Amino acid sequence: MATSAGSVDGRTVDRLRAALAFAGVGAWEWDLRTGDAWWSDHLYGILGRRPDAIPTTLASFLECVVEDDREPMRTALREVLQTGETRAVSCRIVRPHGAVRLCRGQVGAVPDETGRCRLIMGALRDVTAEELERRQPEEALLRAFRDQRTELLTMLESAPRALLLVDAAQRIIRSNRATEQLLGWRSGDLVGRGLPVLSPEPTVVLDALLLAATARDPSVPVARLVTLAGQDGLPFSAMMTVSAAPAAEGARFVVMFEARGSVAPVDDDAGRHAASGPADEAAPAVPMLPLSGS
To answer: Among 207, 290, 190, which Cα is nearest to 242's?
Structure first.
């Protein structure tokens, strides 16, 4: 340390070392003229090495760095050598027993009388504990999301009525047992299918999805009386209710189907099908929206 400290007296050096340790900073120096290097005691602590167990070389230091972080460290050193400007660095240190520590710091250059880089100096601080504390709110949000996802899937599976999660592209991404019983399709066979293919009248299904997607109040469900066809191909009438989905599983909609009765074909101009269910169970009046245009 005396060589790199120059005219600085011993007491000042001791105070500097104490200040670095108090601040949790590990420091190092690399003399480009002599090739000598110096590491502070706290740097050895950050690396998890004893001074007599590792050479004070750049190569030895980089061996302590996670492999993916070595090249960014080399790049920072090259830039300091080329420009003389200080660079912020971040790296993960692997200790001998496998513990990984996140470190941040700076690397800078000290020029000689001619302006050339004479000395490279660096400082690292172990910020692992700070980073873990900073991430606690994020982890809490992730846990809440996972809890919400679990609750949603539990409710979906145990619901007595047919429920499906549908994404923004109208693809089915999950369904429950009641859906299997209603349509005759296994849940795995439905996943990835477009929801409109379940109906001989796909435009009615698409219209309900469009209404739900453009609703001013997403908490208000959209209802439609639709015709569905099960795996056996037989059509039947069902009430379709579309609601906005919680932000889980990539879903955009929660779709519920409730069977109302079989559907028989008719020959008059009133329509292709007539519901055999009671007339008082007709769908509530919801204005139709065009499927094309904005």
So the answer is: 207
